[in-house]
Design goal:
Elements (H helix, E strand, L loop, with lengths): L2 H25 L1 H8 L6 E6 L5 E7 L3 E4 L8 E5 L2 H8 L5 H6 L3 E4 L2 H18 L2 H7 L10 H10 L4
Parallel strand pairs: 1-4
Antiparallel strand pairs: 1-2, 2-3, 4-5
Helix pairs in contact: 1-2, 1-3, 1-5, 1-7, 2-5
């Protein structure tokens, strides 16, 4: 696939991921517990390669997570080395652990907090990907506390915030 198309797909997946994190903060106690464990205003940025899509978010005391402007500096930045590598992870072709082992991204910031962020993303993946797919990319597929269709519906219908 062309790099430009992959970048558009990455941006779409990041938008769904962000919205699903907001839904899961409300509906899944494990996601809420992880996010509540982050210091207030902790910021994360996930960058999908040079010139690629970006998800920048900040822990919000009352809302779980909120979007940041793309240009704002974050305390933790996970930067994929290529749009293609990011696509492999975001599309569920490759686990984040495999991407780490293959040096597909760099990390700036606190690795302990990053692992918490990765756990939250893995919970979201368990809802967003079919179970058979999740088994390929997650060490352990967590039980769901709400339905996947509900997460998708609420994430897709939520107004961008």
């Amino acid at each position: 696939m062309k790099k430009e198309l992959l970048n558009h797909v990455n941006a779409l997946v990041l938008a769904v991921l962000y919205r699903s994190l907001r839904v899961l903060y409300r509906d899944d106690s494990r996601v809420r517990e992880e996010i509540d464990g982050w210091k207030n205003n902790l910021s994360f940025k996930l960058v999908c390669g040079p010139g690629g899509a970006v998800l920048a978010l900040r822990r919000s005391e009352h809302a779980g997570v909120r979007k940041l402007q793309r240009a704002q500096r974050a305390e933790i930045t996970m930067r994929f080395k290529s749009v293609e590598g990011a696509f492999q992870v975001l599309s569920g072709q490759k686990s984040i652990a495999d991407a780490y082992a293959e040096h597909l991204f760099t990390l700036e910031g606190d690795i302990y907090q990053t692992m918490s962020f990765v756990r939250v993303v893995e919970y979201a993946e368990a809802y967003l990907f079919p179970r058979i797919w999740s088994r390929r990319i997650l060490r352990e597929v967590p039980e769901k506390q709400t339905g996947s269709l509900r997460v998708y519906a609420e994430a897709l219908l939520e107004h961008a915030r």
